[in-house]
Design brief:
The chain has three helices and no strands. By secondary structure, it is mostly helical.
């Protein structure tokens, strides 16, 4: 599964925002524990690219 397919999976599962929140939370926790900042930067850059993809390709619609 490539990166876009992984993102599409989360979108179809309607759990992308929860997944993003988890990535951000783990990054914050790792920073607090003094983890390698280069690795955290890579994770945050990946999340940023996914958000840009979502912005360019999707529209958020409120659930009923």
């Amino acid at each position: 599964m490539n990166k876009i397919e992984g993102l599409e999976f989360h979108i179809k599962s309607q759990d992308y925002f929860g997944t993003l929140a988890t990535v951000l939370s783990l990054s914050r926790q790792n920073l607090e524990m003094g983890a390698d900042k280069k690795q955290i930067v890579k994770v945050l850059e990946y999340a940023e690219k996914q958000l840009i993809y979502l912005q360019e390709n999707y529209e958020i619609v409120k659930n009923h």
